């Protein structure tokens, strides 16, 4: 249906794509895999008219087409659901779906009746239980995704690009998304599915295309390949163990939390974190894990409960106090809460530890760069220069900058909230290896994760939360995925 | 991961060298504009190069510049303070009131500065304490502060400041170098150091780029913003001391419209009105440019309204040109 031939795109100093060949077929799901920075996002932007290719051309039904603007692409029936689809908080669900192409009355005004009716029909078609007049700001991430998908369908798309659609979804929601993909497939849409999760690729995709460093390094039918073959193509080397947890000596309790409550988000949370330990927090989206962590970090105020650090009662009211006590937090929402886009890498890394690189409040540039260099090198950051805007880095490298920022403060406890969400395998492995190394050096780690392999691979103990409460604490030995899923979903043994 | 592997990729410190960064900077463009305007002035008026004339010209920007430096920090942090001129008016009025009750020069200066600080504290409390949007807060306090000045003064004026008080606005440190010019330069240096060389300045940029991520990085966002409003109030008070001393009188309409001139100076100086970027050097150059334009037009007897039209056009032009250039380049590359 749609074919890319010899596509190349160069940015100042970087060749983002070269000689890319890609074909999408009606009623078929093609998985696009590759590490972050391999050129997947650039390709999506070319397909949707945001970027123009420097070389090569796009063919639609055998005829060459040019997408000079995003509207051109939309008119041709190509639509994308991005990693961070732009939606509008203050508008209703229906307005978000039809923004830019609202049905009109004879007089040119928006036909609200028709718009709401069509929105309802679209939402029903994708099995979303949403009302057209709901405000977007009141919806969670999963429902926002559904709105984005409804929006994609509202322009009668023939080619649907899904860029990591399941990254923020819980188990149940992912299941629903798979059903939706099947439905789109049955309707004859050509689907490009970008994902880092191999199990889902093999579950829903028919074909695959692998990118590495801006080049296509392999393509074919998924039925004729294996996971390890894909990984080998992606990284160009054998990654071996993805979760290299080395046993660390576990010492005395560092952080003790008891009877921790929040008026709305969580209740009666209690756990103990020891020196050198990696404590996993598993649960469904909305189980209250991030909320507990943000309260510990001083972002929100708990209503009751005691926190002790090294046995001393600690009252933490602001993130600044948390940092001073040695608790740091790597947030899930990297773009808004983690990296400060618009500032250089070096300033991002040293922001909380400026007191260490300054005398009487005056920053010493050489020391500042040295500190940033030290910690970014430990995390194997890939960047051209330390004064580069952190916003120009890939997601995985931004995450490394955020982690480097916290390690530079020499914390006692580091809380990582979905640390590898949406980042590529190479960066993932670097983050995991580093976590393990840190624990070995006596740092205590809390890792909130929704990925069972990550939890099972990395955590010494796992706390499972459900609906704001503790659903259980499990030791590493004898832990199975079934135990975690049952605890998180509240399914008893008999079920 | 072995240590050899970690050392494998070297990331250099900076993308561009110092020279290249300077050449491509906003300040370089402003400097060029300043030189051109200076040349036009020299060419169009034979009196312009006279040292005493040039010295007089500096008064067109010194007091506004004092405010603009502090305002620049507020704007970089993503906030704004439109009450600066009203703070100046209230400071001047309270100084006049104190003078009429027999206060001497040291008391007058103290009252001017403290009034500025107090007004800044009100703004700071409303913005960072209560979390109100600064544009609304300072439009409100703009009316409030000037309104108080009007209530105290009515349509009268305070005159008859002590003779030694006149030194702040009329005194010369050396030959044609006025006290105000020295104060302007010193303040520029202090603010440049504060913004560019201290950890406090760094947090100002962080807040302006992303207040939430700054908070999540342990920055005391509200405290920093409060300090910035205090500083702006203080500098407005300082400007009030200079202006009152120079004019020798206080009317409630003193410094009307200065808040917009100060904002213009800041934006022309390359400070992003949305926060997050810009440098003090640019504000210094913008102050020079605006002062020279005003003075040059004055020498040519151009009416004041034409000057404000020119400054407005200059602002739009200087901001639009770089955008247009990049756009033309893009079109050429595509075509």
Automatic annotation (TrEMBL), chain B:
CDD domains: TM_PBP1_transp_AraH_like. Keywords: Cell inner membrane, Cell membrane, Membrane, Transmembrane, Transmembrane helix, Transport. GO terms for molecular function: transmembrane transporter activity. The chain crosses the membrane at residues 28-49, 69-96, 108-126, 132-153, 173-195, 226-244, 280-299, 305-325. It comes from the Bacteria. GO terms for cellular component: plasma membrane. It is found in: Cell membrane. The keyword Transmembrane applies. Coiled coil: none annotated. InterPro entries: ABC_transp_permease. Pfam families: BPD_transp_2. It is a multi-pass membrane protein. Part of the ABC transporter complex LsrABCD involved in autoinducer 2 (AI-2) import. Probably responsible for the translocation of the substrate across the membrane. The complex is composed of two ATP-binding proteins (LsrA), two transmembrane proteins (LsrC and LsrD) and a solute-binding protein (LsrB). This is Autoinducer 2 import system permease protein LsrD. It comes from Gellertiella hungarica.
